[in-house]
Amino acid sequence: MDHLDSIAQQRKYDNRITCALRAGYPGPFQAEGVAFATWMDNCNALAYQFLEEIQNGTRDMPENPQQLIDALPEMVWPT
């Protein structure tokens, strides 16, 4: 969660929730909210995929949280 919050804070949002919330409302921050919420959902889906692979023995357990973070896609903010 800290990683998601820190990415949202790059654009001066309080946290992942306040950033993703913007996706649901028309206005100057909606594109950022949509991009962030989509990225966050992709990260969560990938993390569940990694968990399944670890449980099945087809992926090694990351040695530390940073290894998992490094395997996630990069957030691309709209311009």
Features of the shown structure:
elongated; mainly alpha; 4 helices; 79 residues
Structure description:
This protein has 79 residues and is an all-alpha fold. The protein is built from four helices and no strands. The chain has helices at 2-9, 16-21, 30-56, 65-71. The mean pLDDT is 96.
Quick summary of this structure?
By secondary structure, the chain is mainly α.
Series of H and E elements: HHHH
- The helix tally amounts to 4
Q: What can be said about the biggest beta sheet?
A: none
Which range does the strand content fall in?
under 5%
Q: Helical amount among residues, as a percent range? A: 55-70%
DSSP, total strands: 0
Secondary-structure-based class equals: mainly alpha
Q: Please, what is the oligomeric state?
A: single chain
Query: What coarse outline follows from CA principal-axis ratios?
Result: elongated
- Average pLDDT, to the nearest integer? 96
User: How large, in whole angstroms, is the Cα Rg?
Assistant: 14 Å
Low-confidence stretches: none
Termini Cα gap = 25 Å
